[in-house]
Amino acid sequence: HQIAYLCLRHLLKLNENVVGLFTYTNSKNENIWFKTPDLAAAEYGVPIFYNADLKAPKIKKKIETQLKPDLVFSFYYREKLPDYILNLPWFSAINLHGSYLPYFRGCAPLNWSLVKGAKFTGVTLHYMTSVFDAGDILARVKYPIFQTDDINTLYSKFHKFGLELFQKTFPSIKNGTVKPIKQDTNRAAYFGRRKPEDGRIRWKSMSSTEIYNLIRAVTDPYPGAFTFYQNSKLIFLKSEIIRQPRFIANLKLKTGEAIYKEMRFYVKCNDGKILMIYDFDINNKIIAKIIEDCAIKP
Asked: Are 239 and 275 in contact (CB under 8 A)?
């Protein structure tokens, strides 16, 4: 992730002895819209290990007898680290998580924060344990989520505050003066990996606010929230909850029905509010058919 690139580059600029980077090759099916940490590692000649099986005896031996790290950092690593790595470093293993722990433990914390309509999020540095995102907190920072934020603006904040937190906290981690605090497990909630189906808009069961939150949580560069019209997939990228315009009031639309006017969709939600969709990815032939039928039905 880009936060890994930013923090690794900071360590390298400090002339820290980074003995290796374990990361992933870019998938052809993945939209790589961020700077990956291997770019920084390659620039400074740091050994890079792609798609390594950390449990393999050869890799285990490599880490324990050759690399011999004093400190391990994890920045959005996709797999759970084996226990031998968690117990290996002198200072222990440390993770940077994209939420204000203990809130939004688990995967895709920024996306989930928007989906759930959270008013704030943050960045947390914490010790890693055998339980995901449950270790003692070394440092954290909180910042607000505004109603106008989407996943892009939230990532911009995350990169800014995440790098600042890492820069500020690293010296105390290195010299052993950092003072960890326990997490309040009563406030903890885990969220899993988001699946493609999670982006589907369900007009009958979701309120206008829930749909608005979903759209802004998975907009470009993510695949976008979607619905179907006559078996054709419609991808919605930006929306706004508005007062019901006069030209809709007389139509008496049902939940999930919509009209298309002046390059915008106006959809009736189950709470009676109108969701205006003003950025979308839809085939022109489908738009023409929608205009002809004058409705999207659930």
From this structure: yes
